[in-house]
C-alpha cells in the first residue's frame, strides 16, 4: 500500500464514515491529509437548517496550505459575534484558494425536504469551487456523489479549519440575505432573528400569518397559516416534515447580496 494512502487512513476514517476524533488544533485534519498527498482539501457546511423562514445556504471553501491558510479568529461561525464573523469572512475570502456559496430557497426546502436539500447544496457548493479538491471534509454527515473522497466530521466546524471557513461563508451570506429580506417583510423581524424560531418571531407569525419566505414544512408555520392546529408543541418539535423529491433548482448566491453589509 502506498505510504500516502496509509497516512491518509491514519489521518481520517474511510469515506462515508463519521468520526468524533478531535485533532490537536483546528488545522490538524488538513495538514495530515496534505502530508498524505491529498491536496487541496475542501470543507463544506450549511447555515439555516433549523430556521423556519428564509433559505438554506451551503458554503464550501479551500484554504491554502501553510501560514497563509491560518485565518485569524477563525472558529465555528456560531461561536463568533456578528462583528467577528464579518472580519473572519473578509479574511477567508481574501485568503481562500477557492470558495462558493449556494442558496436554496425556502420553497425548495419544503418541496424536496430539508436533509436532501442540504446534501444537494453541499454537492453543488463543492462542484462550484474553482479548484478541484482532492479530499472533502463535511460537517456532521457523509455526502455521496460529492466528486472526491470525503469524511464526515462530527462538530466539524469546531475541529477543521476548512469546515469552519465554510460555516462562516454560509452564515454571513445567509445573514445578509435575511437582513435584506427584512425590507420586504418588516413585520417579522428577520434582521434580528434571521428566520429562527424565537418568541418574537412566533408572535409575529400568529399576528400576520406566514409570508412567502416561511417554510411550510415547519409545524409552527403550518399552524400559524391555519393549516393545522398547534397544540402542546415545544420548539424542539417544530422541525421539518417535508415531502421527499429528487429535483432541486438550487441557485448560486447573487453577488450583489454577498456584498450587502450585515448590521451588527
CATH class of the largest domain: Alpha Beta
E-strand count: 7
**Rounded radius of gyration (Å):** 19 Å
β-sheet strand percentage: 5-15%
Please give the largest β-sheet. 7 strands, mixed
Please write out the topology.
Blueprint: H1 3-11, E1 18-19, H2 28-35, E2 41-47, E3 56-62, H3 82-95, E4 98-104, H4 106-112, H5 114-127, E5 135-139, E6 150-153, H6 156-159, H7 161-184, H8 190-193, H9 199-208, H10 219-224, E7 251-252, H11 255-258
Parallel strand pairs: 1-6, 2-5, 5-6
Antiparallel strand pairs: 2-3, 3-4, 4-7
Helix pairs in contact: 1-2, 3-7
What does this structure look like?
The chain has 264 residues and is α/β, with parallel strands linked by helices. It has two domains: 178 residues, 2-Layer Sandwich (Nucleotidyltransferase, domain 5), CATH 3.30.420.10; 53 residues, no CATH class. 39% of the residues lie in helices and 13% in strands. The protein is built from eleven helices and seven strands. The protein has a seven-stranded mixed sheet with strand order 1-6-5-2-3-4-7. A hairpin with an 8-residue loop joins β2 and β3. α1 packs antiparallel against α2 and α3 crosses α7. The longest helix is centred in the middle third of the chain and has 24 residues. It is elongated.
